[in-house]
Amino acid sequence: MPIVIPGKRPAKRFEKSKILGGKFARAHKATNAELNVVPMVDMMTMLVIFLLQQFSSTGEVLYMQKDIKLPDARHGQIIEIAPVVAISAEQVVVTGVKVADVRELDSEGGYLNIPALEERLRDEKKRWDFIHQNDPEKKWEGAVNIQADKGVPFRIVKRVLFSCGVAGYFSVNFAALDAGTAVAATAPGGPGEG
């Protein structure tokens, strides 16, 4: 059976008919339609380039809040996956959850710890333990990334550091912008690190 162009066809007895046969004969027009794929290829190329530029090979993207201006650093390391404590001029946030207001922390005197921050960091440790309960080779490192605004007073940062230590996070990294490329990096700041 030969390959035929799809469409309406008259029955065999009407093919020679003057009424219907002529009508179907006139309906055969060229069905070749040209599709210009050049714009589509250009658009796909732009999308691929955009996605490659946005790709992070470390797997961790540090969400930078708009109200936090990070300090610049000349030497740093690549950011590792760890809970992020963000200290802005107005609030302290742990992995997207607000735990304290900076004004209240500044007005309180005496105690160094921040109970809500300690509780949230302990919850993060419990979550880490639950995720890695079947992986005995993975050891708890107690790492935390601190993302502090340039203008935050040191007494607030000191209270956050103390609360991190009480919660069991002893490996502290400070997020900073790489002075050469303006990319977020971490500067070691834990005990015994240089």
TrEMBL record:
Q: Please give the InterPro entries that the UniProt record associates with this protein.
A: ExbD
Q: Which GO terms describe its biological process?
A: protein transport
Q: Which GO terms describe its cellular component?
A: plasma membrane
- Please give one Gene Ontology molecular function term for this protein: transmembrane transporter activity
Q: Name one Pfam family in it.
A: ExbD
Q: Where in the cell is it found?
A: Cell membrane
Annotated keywords:
Cell membrane, Membrane, Protein transport, Transmembrane, Transmembrane helix, Transport
Stretches of the chain forming a coiled coil according to its record: none
Per UniProt, what is the membrane topology? Single-pass membrane protein; Single-pass type II membrane protein
Presence of the UniProt keyword Cell membrane in the record: yes
Does the record carry Transport as a key word? yes
Query: Per the similarity annotation, which family is this?
Result: Belongs to the ExbD/TolR family.
Name of the molecule in the record: Biopolymer transport protein ExbD/TolR
Its lineage reads: Bacteria, Pseudomonadati, Myxococcota, Myxococcia, Myxococcales
